[in-house]
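The following record pairs a protein chain with its ligand, FE2/S2 (inorganic) cluster.
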Amino acid sequence: MNIKLKIWRQKNKDTAGHFEEYSLSGIEEHMSFLEMLDVLNERLFKEGKEPVAFDSDCREGICGQCGLVINGMAHGPIRSTTCQLHMRHIAEDPSFSDGDTITIEPWRATGFPVLKDLIVDRSALDRIVQAGGYISVNTGAAPEAHSVPVEKPKADRAFEAAACIGCGACVAACPNASAMLFTAAKITHLGLLPQGQPERYIRVINMLNQHDEEGFGGCTNIGECAAVCPKSVPIDVISQLNRDMGKARFKGVHVH
Ligand code: SF4
Ligand code: FES
């Protein structure tokens, strides 16, 4: 494949960014998208130019580090993490033909300031978890599995929500830059398990307050978040969050 790349370059969070264009030829369709960027960076390095900064770690769809907006879509044209996207997926995309330009941008949201080029600071998601996405009772060593019975539907639902890897694509895709799918996933997986009950209602209040403080927007049921989520976290976890929030208010739960 011969491709052109239009990539967002930004020195740091205090400077304005801009797009720069690069041409690459002989790109194998079986390369991953990140390997294609590695090829570009090797070339830039040899030319004495600054490589494009982007995040990645596991490159196996597990860690959530690798988010990019590719041709306007969070993680690109297929529902996966960016590291699991291959150049053949781009080639098979009907809106793309050989020689076309691929636009690559960082996640764009107030809560995710750009640190450099394509890398954003996603620590706001960590702070939402720190506000309540944990169980503070000492559960000791792992108990015998049958000693804490969990109904199968609840276990399945909790597991579905726990699949969230904190990549932030839901925020990047949402016109309101809302992190509600992420926050609701954490609230749902803890709130359905017996260990999560003691802090269930204070958790939802504290996590939502932190969500708002970080500058993420509200949910208006658009659904882009679930459409791009690489781990298929369902949008109705947000209903679970809203139900828990309603109960917290009814119970008169106050922030610590
Ligand atoms: S809910 Fe999905 S899109 Fe959002 S952070 Fe979790 S894995 Fe990523
Ligand atoms: S690099 Fe870990 S999920 Fe992509």
